[in-house]
Amino acid sequence: MDTVIIGAGPGGYTAAIRASELGEQVTLIEKNKVGGTCLNIGCIPSKALINAGHRFAAMASDEQLGMTQGGKKNLDYTKTQQWKQSIVDKLVGGVQDLIKEHQVDLRYGNADFLDLHHLRLVSGTKTTILAFKRAVIATGSRPRPLADFPFEKRVIDSTSALSLPKIPEHLLVDGGGYIGTELASAYADLGAKVTIIQHSKRLLSKFDESLVKVVTANLQRKGVEIITEAPIKKVENTKTAVTVTYEKNGEQQIINGDYLLVTVGRLPNTEDLGLENLGLNLTKQNKIIINDQCQTNREHIFAIGDVTPGIMLEHRATNQARVLGAILAGKETHVNYKALPEIVYSDPEMAVTGLSKKAAIEAGYHAATAQFPFGANGRALTLNVTTGFLRLIFDDKTNQIIGAQIVGPNASELIAELTTVIENELTLDDVANTIHAHPTLAETIVDAAEVGLDLPINI
Ligand code: FAD
To answer: What EC number(s) does the entry state (predicted)?
Structure first.
């Protein structure tokens, strides 16, 4: 066998398909389901639940538009779960078909390395030893548990949280990163009482405070209680409930809930892979160190996706995979992260790309910002979602746009245009001179650019 890829998540299956399109025969090994974390237990099912939550919450909230409804809102959560699963099954089936169409040799089983050119594939009771010339590690990541409180009974990870049998009365969430914030928001919309208990000072601490403020305020409006700087000290975990003791201002506090959802980060799946037999360089967090061609310190071994240093996101994995697929087929190319969008599917959504102002200054730019509020945008008003703003970060000597930050309606879609702008080193003038249709949320991009040029029309 020439090339073997371990893990058929977004990283692994994308690399396999691209390499195959470019004429390279690859073997892809998966121990569970193709589509990996993202399709089965991550991006897709979580966004389905978030959408279900938005729609359920909206059923009663349009009194301003003159719409009221008598009686009680009903939610058949079993049906919601079935709908969510049908989307997952459709996408996973689609990926299976694509793998087949591209004649990728897909094998199911658990793989680990025996030495630099052999791996063991265990499938049920059958063990096979496979020889390879090149290998790609794309084994992804898993939820990190709290140090002393494993995932069991009512202490759950994101995977279990996506498939709860019914809406909890009271969901406790430990961790205010994007996964915790998204699931807290979804369950609050679906009718649960939600309390976030977190160690750090604020939610989403890696994002700019001005954006997070908008999201935090809206979560609180939904009734989500947010307890910050409150490390968890004790968890009493039974089959039916959980009691959590946390410390706040030096005092121990107790809170009860149906579940404690722990979202305090994810660990790379680099154990049990026999990496010690390869002598790969790893970070302290056990991630596999690679160069910009996704190559490890062993030149015939590559790694992509969540097992490599950097932010754990599907589109980073698939971008690396596209690049690696080409490299495997003999092309000269490399990854570049000039504009890597990051999205939080909060309410309203948050999205950033390129550099923050601080990072831009550190990188030597004469960084300035210009922003435009959604409250002054016609389309946002017609959608009745007017909170938030769109901000451009640009170099005020050249007017080159080097970063963007959005909190507001459809931020997840708007960020795509700005990622293209940054990737292609466009300027405020380029954006302002591009005709944007009316009425659209994307007009805020032109408006923010005009603010940056000191030629605002709409504000
Ligand atoms: P994975 O998708 O984890 O796939 C790895 C595959 O390798 C798995 O199928 C696994 O079974 C297989 N495998 C592991 N070990 C072995 C072995 N020894 N032998 C054979 N097979 C093996 N990212 C976004 O960009 N946007 C989002 O909105 C988003 N939302 C998320 C929501 C949640 C709740 C979670 C948990 C994650 C979310 N992510 C999101 C992150 C995204 O899912 C990951 O970044 C992405 O799946 C990484 O792809 P990957 O191919 O590196 O790994």
So the answer is: 1.8.1.4
Judge if the beta carbon of residue 183 lies within 6 A of ligand 1.
Answer: no
Q: Which domain holds residue 123?
A: 3-143+267-328
pTM: 0.96
Which residue numbers belong to the known binding site?
A: 47, 139-141, 175-182, 265, 306, 312-315
Domain boundary among 212, 242, 264: 264
Task: Express each pLDDT in 362-383 by its tens digit.
Answer: 999 999 999 999 999 999 999 9
Q: How far apart are CA 49 and CA 53, in angstroms?
A: 6
Q: Note whether residue 149 is domain-resident.
A: no
Residues 406, 376, single domain; the answer is: yes
* Residue owning tokens 């901000």: 391
What is the count of structural domains for the chain? 3
Q: Hey, which of 38, 87, 108, 159 would you mutate to test ligand 1's pocket, going by the most ligand atoms within 8 Å of its Cβ?
A: 38
* Per-position b or e across 29-50, b if 16+ CB within 10 A of its CB: bbbebbbbbbbbbbbbbbbbbb
User: Which of 357, 407, 346, 262 is CA-nearest to residue 54?
Assistant: 346
**So what's the pLDDT on residue 390?**
98
